[in-house]
Amino acid sequence: AQTVTQSQPEMSVQEAETVTLSCTYDTSESDYYLFWYKQPPSRQMILVIRQEAYKQQNATENRFSVNFQKAAKSFSLKISDSQLGDAAMYFCAYRSNGRGAGGTSYGKLTFGQGTILTVHP
Amino acid sequence: GAVVSQHPSRVICKSGTSVKIECRSLDFQATTMFWYRQFPKQSLMLMATSNEGSKATYEQGVEKDKFLINHASLTLSTLTVTSAHPEDSSFYICSALDHLTSEQFFGPGTRLTVL
């Protein structure tokens, strides 16, 4: 079974500064996706960024970028020029790209414990 | 992006009653939907995978007779919490998988409070 670990329960950053959230995972699979989701106080889950394991290039989405180290099974999120609206709980998630027995587990996400990010003005 | 709705957004019920939560994909067909439970400041815990036209697949430790899932159409899955008790109070979130794009979209969640 896959596991996802976020070792930072809470992080804080000054507005306009950069912060990095850590995530490690464990899997025996070679084809998978990794995601970072943001959950603001509204509790609506918002996809921040996704990385396909077979792509060596790190994904970027505006101020958000990842450092994907496949061999080390590490997937950190860097937020540049932090804004007050970035304050939220962030979850790292893993998804296999293969189909499980009977195909019933396709698309299943495994989440990390989450990191609460506070942005100070 | 695609939209997933949940209804109701919050519900308060008495202990022993049953509560139904609906999850709808509004602009795409979802043969697979997922139901999660989340306690405050904790992660999402997958309860079950709902597949259209077949029985749901429950995660270990989740009582299938207590959390009834029905996925009768390509756009609707329902979770019924039967004989609810205070310990069932939680935030329930659904997500829907768009098989054409492999993207997963989350509903806004339902806050259940059992008195």
What is this structure, in a nutshell?
The complex is a heterodimer of chains A (121) and B (115). Chain A is an all-beta fold and 121 residues long.
Q: Any chance you could write out the topology, listing elements then pairs?
A:
The complex is a heterodimer of chains A (121) and B (115).
Chain A: E1 3-5, E2 10-14, E3 19-21, E4 24-26, E5 32-39, E6 46-52, E7 60-61, E8 64-69, E9 74-79, E10 88-96, E11 109-111, E12 115-120
Parallel strand pairs in A: 2-12
Antiparallel strand pairs in A: 1-4, 3-9, 5-6, 5-10, 7-8, 8-9, 10-11, 10-12
Chain B: E1 4-7, E2 10-13, E3 19-25, E4 32-38, E5 44-51, E6 57-58, E7 67-73, E8 76-81, E9 90-98, E10 103-106, E11 110-114
Parallel strand pairs in B: 2-11
Antiparallel strand pairs in B: 1-3, 3-8, 4-5, 4-9, 5-6, 7-8, 9-10, 9-11
Q: Describe the biggest sheet of chain A? A: 6 strands, mixed
Q: Which bin fits the share of residues in helices of chain A?
A: under 10%
Fraction in beta strands of chain A: over 45%
Greatest interface by residues involved: A-B, 20 and 22 residues
Supply the helix-strand structural class of chain A: mainly beta
Number of helices of chain B: 0
Structural class call of chain B reads mainly beta
Multimeric state: heterodimer
The proportion of strand residues of chain B reads over 45%
Using only C-alpha atoms, the radius of gyration of chain A works out to 14 Å
Overall strand count of chain A: 12
Question: Order of helices and strands of chain B, N to C?
Answer: EEEEEEEEEEE
Cα distance spanning the termini of chain B: 37 Å
Low-confidence residue ranges of chain B: none
Assign an overall shape of chain A.
globular
- Gross morphology of chain B: globular
Would you write up a description of this structure?
By secondary structure, chain A is mostly beta strands. Chain A is 0% helix and 50% strand. Chain A has no helices and 12 strands. Chain A has strands at residues 3-5, 10-14, 19-21, 24-26, 32-39, 46-52, 60-61, 64-69, 74-79, 88-96, 109-111, 115-120. In chain A, strands 2, 5, 6, 10, 11 and 12 form a 6-stranded mixed β-sheet that branches. In chain A, strands 3-9-8-7 form a 4-stranded antiparallel β-sheet, with no helix packed on it. Chain A has a two-stranded antiparallel ribbon with strand order 1-4. The termini of chain A are far apart. The model of chain A has no long low-confidence stretch (mean pLDDT 93). Chain B has strands at residues 4-7, 10-13, 19-25, 32-38, 44-51, 57-58, 67-73, 76-81, 90-98, 103-106, 110-114. In chain B, strands 2, 4, 5, 6, 9, 10 and 11 form a 7-stranded mixed β-sheet that branches. Chain B has a 4-stranded antiparallel β-sheet with strand order 1-3-8-7, with no helix packed on it. Chain B starts with a strand and ends with a strand. By secondary structure, chain B is an all-beta fold. The radius of gyration of chain B is 13 Å and the shape is globular. In chain B, a hairpin with a 5-residue loop joins strand 5 (44-51) and strand 6 (57-58). The interface between A and B is medium-sized, with 20 and 22 residues.
